[in-house]
Amino acid sequence: MLLDGRQTADLLNEKLKLKVSLLDKKPRLEIILIGDDAASLSYVKGKLQTASKLGMLVNINHLPVDVLETDVINLINKFNHDKDVNGILLQLPIPKKLNSDKLIELIDYKKDVDGFHTMNQGLLFQKKEGIRPATPLGIMMLLEHYNIPIEGKHVVIIGRSQIVGAPLAKMFLDKNATVTITHSRTKNLSYITNQADILVAAIGKPKFVTKDMVKVGAVVIDVGINRVDGKLIGDVDFKHVEPIASYITPVPKGVGPMTICALAHNLYKLYSEQEKIK
Ligand code: NAD
Predict the structure, then answer these.
(1) I want to staple 224 with a disulfide (CB 3.0 to 4.6 A). Which of 23, 234, 246, 251 is the partner?
(2) How far apart are CA 225 and CA 9, in angstroms?
(3) Is 255 close to ligand 1, i.e. is its CB under 6 Å away?
(4) Catalytic residue at 276?
């Protein structure tokens, strides 16, 4: 069965839109976009469209590829101190000559809508209230929406990045799953993936997960977004894996829309905390 991220996101966004419509002042997000990376431009557009539909305010601060680090720092500081700004997002990747870790740390963690700041990552790893990275949060929201049981299940995640694999593992652990994280140095990968009740692919290699790597009846979550010949292809060989999976996310219309949905929910959460709304 398909885990329809588009449909689920639309449904959850509708509920959020209603809550936003009741606010006097609208939640406001400032996106900092540096350079002209085509994928980043399209992600930012998606975020802008969704947030606008929900009645939230989004500004895109599009800076040239050769922008000076001090200019980016000044902009972040300006937004940190502007009480009308509820969320700040630095669209990644940024040009190599800039230090993304340093810039993310400069964002006030109470406006860190992406949940990438050390404080928010620390809060997650201490199982405390905080902003969770949008892609892992979106995946958890999707599984919850379809009432897919997690407790006691063996979750295998392929990929250990700070924005997807690592935080997602902790979120599954907190739902009482048994979690295995695999990565580029993992040996006997398919032996491990074949034990997964829930298999997550977050690698960035088109059709990397083939049918022989998946247990019959597994839930398969495809995080990958790969552009091949102008088409978006996931990390899972959907055509051959779909018949043996109990549930599977498509690409596109799977994890992508859920990520943006989670981001909008994060912005609302930041707003509520700043404006002290229950
Ligand atoms: P990343 O490059 O930071 O991490 C990739 C991970 O894959 C690494 O941990 C690496 O160890 C692992 N890996 C690489 N080769 C491997 C191999 N042969 N065997 C096992 N593991 C291997 O990537 P990321 O930022 O985590 O993103 C992963 C994918 O998810 C990308 O395609 C990205 O575009 C996509 N993504 C999608 C969304 C979304 O909203 N749908 C959000 C974030 C990322």
Answers:
(1) 234
(2) 18
(3) yes
(4) no
